[in-house]
Structures are given as structure tokens and as C-alpha cells.
Amino acid sequence: MPFFLLFDWSWLEISFLIIIFVIGLLATSLIIPLVIKFSKKKGYVGIDIHKNAHPEVPESGGLSLVFGFLIAFIMLMIFFPEYFNKTLILLLTLILAGFIGFIDDRVKLRSRYKVLLTILTGSILYIAYLFSFITISSPIIPFLGKLRLTVLYPILSPLIIAIFSNIVNMLEGYNGEGSGTCLIALIFIFICGIIWQSTETIIYTIASIGVLIPFFRYNKFPARIFPGDVGTLTMGALLGCIALFGSLEAAVFCALFIHIFNGFYVLYSVKGFLESSDIQEKKSDIVLLEDDKIRASYDKEAALTLPRLILADGPLTEPELVFNFYIITIICGFFSIFTIIMMRWTIGSLDFSVVIITSIIISILITLILIKYKRIRGITYLMILLLIFGYFLLFLIKLLIIPNITFDIIIFYIRIPLNILISVIIVLPFLSIWYYITIKYFWFKLRKKNEEFH
User: Fold this and answer.
1) Cys-Cys with 176: which of 4, 146, 183, 220 at CB 3.0–4.6 Å?
2) Distance between CA atoms of 266 and 390, rounded to whole angstroms?
3) Which residues touch 240 (CB under 8 Å, ≥6 apart)?
4) What is the mean pLDDT of the chain?
């Protein structure tokens, strides 16, 4: 199949995509009620802790996602056989991620074991690469272009899958939160795939969106099903695989800013990978009020989380809180589109005028959103600060380091370009400064609201 934009595909290829989308949507819609019935029969139910009535909701609903992906990606292998190898490995990765998540739902694995097991999940990609079953290309970064990490990057692929899986898992906890933000991210990644002219990205996101839409309908407020770790780990692994196979790592990173922010906050405050349910049990970040509204906890020992930061401006109902997550994710999606435009400009396939026009349009859209939704302004400003910081550093690295340091070093028999290693070392202090600013902002917001509360 020609490697062109979606709009240049034949009607037959577009018809295949529509069929796959519809089959994924219908199959998942039929599977979800069966999973609900199965979960109730087995007693796999959880308490909806963000409602005073504490209703019981079927857990491990992510099983429907696993089966939905299984059907959708089998159809992909049939209709797009030229991508059979990558699709098969992606599917096996999702099944293993789902299996680990299901085990965790049943026995509550310790966080360190969960991280190790999700790294094991990603190792499927590396093994497939070793046997030349699939290819894993070095990432393309704005300003820098394609990095020379031919040997090292495939080794890091299991770690990338583990990171994406766990950050998605850490933000889940409210009705429609995880499935909704991942669905929005996938839609923007689909747009990025069209801009990047990545066939893999387009076909994988279309199939995945078809599966996620019916699940989101059941998971949104008031939730009739919870994804459980089987769902969140699977969604995170999916996004990681799409990033690797579509060479869209930088864009997917931006699309998941909201998850990455929350992950940073949680790691800082609890010193580990705790998901939302664990936080509620040990260091609850929120307080449920009598009218079912939710406010931020003012306890200094409570976990720092993105929900707690949003609620620092005052209580919200659960749907209102989750809607703020959606708006932030849309802004992150705009960041991903800007990043993919920068990537194409970097490799010389777009004129710089397109970058300027895109920047203006995105700036206007984000400004209009922030005018309407004041509560998310601080978080958005921090994200923009990180983006500006990052692009400025990449520009300096391109200007001063990449052309002046051209030899490699060998560490544990792995050849690593010295200019990339030095670049990473330089970036870390700046990242620490940004991180310090975000934590200070977090405590400033909480302290200000706490003074008003008392």
C-alpha cells in the first residue's frame, strides 16, 4: 500500500478501515455486557469511592478492551497483511499487558513487581526485533532529526512500554477519566499520523478508537463498568506501541502530558508508582463532601496529584472534575500536532511558514480555551513552560553539541553517540528546575486555598 496521506488512499483501503472501525465498535459493544455479567458472577466488583452511596461497579472491565482489540487487530492483519508482523507483536503485547493487569486486579501486586512485569511485557517487542520479525527505528526529535540509536533504542523499547502503561494506570480513578483521556489522545495521534504520513499510526488508531468508544460509553459517569488495571495497562501499552511503530514518540509524549504530569507529582509525593485506588487508601488526595462534590485534601501528608491540583480552586462534582481532564488532554493534543509539524520541518518536508501558521492557530485555540476554563490555566502554563524549555534546549543542543562532538563511546558493549549522552546530561538539570517550579506552584495553590478554608 502506498505510503501516502489518508486522503490519497484508494477507496478500497479506506473501506477496509471503516469496516475495521465498525467491527471493533460493534464487537466491543457486544462483549461489554458479557464482561459485566461475568464480573458480577465472579464477584469482581469495586466500590465507587467518589459517591457517598458507594455503589458497587463491575471491575476488570478492561477485559472487554482486550477482546475488542483482539478482534479489531485480527481484522487488521487480514485487510492489511503487509503490516502483519507489527500488528501481531502489538496484539501479543496488549494481551500480555491485559493478563498482568487482570492478575493485579485479583491479587494487588506491589508497585515494583508491576513495573517489572510491564517491562517484561515490552520485551516482546525487543525479542521480535532481535529475530528481525519487526523493525524499531530510532526516534525523530524536533531540531535534532533522527537520533543515532540503532542498537540502544530497541533495548529501551520495553522500558518505554512500561512507562506508558504505568503513567496511564496512575491517573485512572474517576468515572470516564482514563478511557476518556486515552480516547482523546488517540484521536489527536490519528491526526498526527495523517500529518506524519504514517500508515501504521493511522490503521492502529482507527481500530483502537473503534474499540474505545463503546467502552467509554459504559465507563463515563455514572460508571457501569471500571477498566481495572487490565484496562489501564492495556491502554498504556497500546499508546506505547503506536509511538514506537509510527515513529511518533515525541508527539505521543506531548499527547500524554496530562498523564506524565500526574505521574511526576505522584512519584514525588509517595516515592513510588501508586495508582489512584492505592492513594485513596494510604494518602488520600481528595475529600468527598456530603453533596457528592469533591475537594482537595489539605493534609500535608496527602499525595500530590493532578486531581488535587485542579480541586485546589474549590470543590467540583466528579463529572466536572473529569471534564477538566478532557480539556487539558485536548490542549495536550494541540501540543502533539505542533510537535509533529516541527518534526516534519526538521526533516525538511515542510516549509517553516507552515510551522508559523500552525503555531498561530494553536495559540489562538488554546487562548480561547483558557479564557473559558480558568481552573486549568496554571497547569497549562506549566505545560507550555516545559514545551518552551524543551524546544530551547533542543535548539542549543543542535547548535552547539551535535555538530561539535561526533564520536561514540562503548558502554557494556553498546555503542552510544557521545553527543546524545552529553545532551541527556545537560537536559536533566533544566528538567529538575522545571520540576521544582511545578512543585512550588502546587504548594502555593494548596496553601492559598487552605488559608481560605480555615
Assistant:
1) 220
2) 22
3) 122, 160, 161, 163, 164, 165, 252
4) 89
Rounded CA separation 353/340 (Å):
15
What is the rounded CA–CA span in Å between residue 47 and residue 41?
Answer: 16
Cβ atoms 438, 264 nearer than 8 A = yes
Whether the CB-CB separation of 312 and 446 falls below 8 Å is answered with yes
How far apart are the C-alpha atoms of 93 and 118, rounded to whole Å? 10
Question: Distance between CA atoms of 350 and 424, rounded to whole angstroms?
Answer: 27
Q: Which helix (H) or strand (E) holds 316?
A: strand 316-317
Task: Tell me 56's DSSP state.
Answer: E
Tell me the per-residue pLDDT of 395-453, one tens digit each, with 9 for 90 and over: 999 998 988 888 888 877 778 888 888 888 888 888 888 888 888 888 887 777 666 65
Beta bridge partners of 415: 410
Q: In a 3-state reduction of DSSP, which class is residue 134?
A: coil
How many angstroms separate the CA atoms of 342 and 355, rounded?
7
SS3 194: helix
For residue 142, give the DSSP letter. Answer: T
- The whole-number average pLDDT for the span 51-58 is 92
d(CA 239, CA 108) in angstroms, rounded, equals 24
List, in sequence order, the alpha helices (H) in 246-291.
249-255, 257-270, 276-282
Torsion over CA: 359, 362, 368, 373 (sign): negative
Task: Give, as one character, the DSSP assignment of residue 169.
Answer: H
Q: Tens of pLDDT along 293-303?
A: 998 888 777 88
Spans of all domains in the chain: 6-453
Closest CA to 42 of 28, 22, 63, 21: 63
DSSP codes of every residue in 338-382: HHHHHHHHHTTSS-HHHHHHHHHHHHHHHHHHHHH-GGGHHHHHH
Q: What is the DSSP string of 390-414?
A: HHHHHHHIIIIITTT---EEEETTE
Beta pairing class for 56-58 and 286-288: unpaired
pTM over the 0.90 mark: yes
Q: How far is CA 16 from CA 20, 21, 88, 198, 302, in A?
A: 6, 9, 18, 17, 50
* pLDDT above 80: residue 273: no
Going from the C-alpha of 149 to that of each of 173, 179, 238, 366, the distances in angstroms are: 37, 33, 23, 35
Of 435, 151, 181, 170, the residue nearest 279 (C-alpha): 170
Rounded CA-CA distance 300/349 in Å is 51
What's CA 327's distance to the chain center, in Å? 15
